[in-house]
Amino acid sequence: MNSVRGKGVVKKVFVSIVLIGLAMFALAGLALKFMDFRIGPPPLAPPKQRIIEPDTGHDITDAPPEMHLKIGIANYSDEGLGKVFINNVWGGGMQPYASSNGRTCCVTLPRSWHPGLKVAVAYRTSSMFLKDPQSYVEKDVLVAPYEPFIDGFIYFFYFPGDQVRVVATPYSPGYPGFAYDIDFGRGHGDPAKIKRFLEATAGKEAE
Fold first, then answer.
1. Which residue, 28, 47, 164, 185, has most beta carbons within 10 Å?
2. Residue 197 burial (C-beta neighbours within 10 Å; 0-12, 13-18, 19+)
3. What are the residues whose beta carbons fall under 8 Å from the beta carbon of 172, sequence distance 6 or more?
4. Over 70: is that where the pLDDT of 119 sits?
């Protein structure tokens, strides 16, 4: 009889020990979960999306996320431009029907374009100066879409009717690789090309 009772006690003790062990194991697992503890090596980070420069085919994935672009001005009007600023960076002025590239540095833009990207421009035309030497037009202009590139320009385009466009590009207007078919240089201004350019960039201004 005593032997049976002894076995019962041993069984109860054994069951109690097992239950206590399971409880401690569960508590330890819960604690490790809160501590974000992982057994083994950490999971691999997702692969970085590769960025390829379209014109050269170069892999620019590891290039800095921002570009510092020289300011170019293309004036397609009979108004002189006294001063042009992009994001408070002075870009100089421009005679009527004349253009320049890379006159001053620099305006910073993200290497990858995104919807809603815009810059603040300020400028004064010759007729504005004659009326009020301190006057400026200030507006926010959406930057036309662009593919990632290493280095280049940000162009301020001015057209009759106070139409403004801003284009970030590795190439100057008129050169192979420039995204739009529009002339560049003194005496430029093919009406058909200007019309197509303005239509292609329509809606790129944001007051």
1. 164
2. buried
3. 72, 101, 153, 155, 178, 184
4. yes
Q: What letter represents residue 55's amino acid?
A: D
Backbone dihedral region for residue 201 (phi beyond 0: left; psi -120 to 50: alpha; all else: beta):
alpha
The two three-digit tokens of residue 3, written as one number? 């032997």
DSSP annotation of 133 reads T
Tell me how far CA of residue 126 lies from CA of 72, 132, 138, 206, in angstroms.
19, 10, 16, 24
Question: Could you count the other beta carbons within 10 Å of the beta carbon of residue 135?
Answer: 13
Neighbours of 14 (CB within 10 A): 10
- pLDDT at position 44, please? 65
- Residues 150 and 170 sit within 8 Å (Cβ to Cβ): yes
Contact present, 177 and 170 (Cβ < 8 Å):
yes
Per-residue model confidence as pLDDT tens digits over 19-63: 565 556 555 555 555 555 555 566 666 666 777 766 666 677 777
